[in-house]
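Exercise 7.
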Amino acid sequence: MTQHQIPYGKTQLTFALPDALHVERLAPTPIPPVPDPAHAVRAALDHPLGDFRFEHFARAQSVAIAINDKTRPVPLAILLPPLLQKLAQVHIPDTAITLLIGVGTHTPMAPREFSDLLPPDILARYRVVSHDCDDAARNIFLGETQRGTRVLCNREYAQADLRIALGDIEPHQFMGFSGGVKSAAVGVTARETIAHNHALMLEPNAYQGRYDDNPARQDCEAIGKLIGVQCALNSVIDEHKQIVGVFAGDPVAVMRAGMPLALAVYRVPVAAKFDLLIISAGGHPKDLNVYQAQKALGHSIPVLNPGGTIIWVAACPEGSGGQKYEEYVAQFSSHQAVIEHFRSAAFQLGNHKAFQIARDVTQARVMMITELPPALARKLLLPRVASLEAALTTALRDLPANARVGIMPLGNVTIPTIE
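Solution. The predicted structure, written as C-alpha cells, is:
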C-alpha cells in the first residue's frame, strides 16, 4: 500500500491505495516561485503593461482598489504594500484610498472579519469597505453590454479617479480565467449584473481555460470597460500558494501576459480517462463552503469514464455558502428534478449552483467527504459518506480490471486535459 495525502480544510487527509493500482497525481506543474515576491511586485508596478501609467494619476483625489474576499487565496499581504507604496510615490495620500472587498454575491464581510484578510498595518492606515450586491442605494447604472448585461456598479468604485482590480489569474470553470477586471466586474457590481453575466455559463464556449471566444469572459471584459477599470495587479500562484509570476497595468494586457503562465501551471495532460478520481477543491479557502468547492467536481467530470466514481473531499465548515442555493435545492427530492426545473425556468444566481452540482452528480457516482452536518447534506442532495476510508472501500471494491485512478489535490483550478 502506498500512502497519499489530499487537502481538506486547513489540514490534509492521508489514505492508502494498493500498489498494484495505476495511480496518477493530477497536480499543477511545479514551476519555481519568484525568489523575491515583494521585488517581483515592485518590478511589475514599475513597468506596467499596456498604456497604463501611475504617473498619469498623480495627486488623484480618490482611488478605489477592488480586492477579493476570504474565499480566494490571493496573497494580499504581498501584493498590497508595494501597490500602496507606488500610489504614495505619485503623491496620492492614504486618505484618498479605499480598499473595497469584492464579495460579488457572497455575504458581505463584517468589519470584524477584515483582519482575516488584511494585515493590521493596512487596516490601521486605509479605509476598508465590503461591497453589498443587494444595496441598491450604493450602486450606479453605467450602461449595457452588447450581450444585454445592465451594469450596476458600486458607486464609490465607479466614481473614483483611479480604479484598480487586484487578484489572481487562474482557471475558472465557466469564466475561463479569473483575473484582470473580474475582481471589479463581478466583485463590486449588483446582483442583477452578476446574474445576467453568469447566465452565459450555459453557452458552449463558457469553459475553463478559454478567453477570446468565451461569452461569459468577454461579457465580463465589457462590464469592466463600462466601469472603467484602468489597472489590474494580478499574481499567478502555484499549488503551495507561492507566487510564480506578477503582472500589472492595463487589464487586458495583464490577462494576455498572465494566462499562458496560468495554463503552464494548471493545465495537466492525461493519457486517458479515469475510473476513480479522488479530488479536493484545494483545501482552505477553496473548500470553505459547497458553493466554492463545487468547482472541483466540474473540472473532474471531463476526464472520468462514464459511470466512474468520484470521491469529493471538501470540508465546507461554513456550510452551503449560499442561502438562495440552499432554499432552491431544498424544493427537490432528486438531482434530475433540479436539472429539469432549472432548464425550464429563468436563470437565477444560487439556482445555478444547484444545477451545476446536479449536472455533475448525475454523470458519476459521487461520494462526498465533508464536515457538513448529515441533515444539511441531505437537504442539499449531497452524497455524504461518513469517512474517506469508507468511500475508498466501496470504490476500490467496484473498480474494473486495469482501472485508472487519479488524485486531484487542487481541483478548483486544475485543468486535466486528454492528450
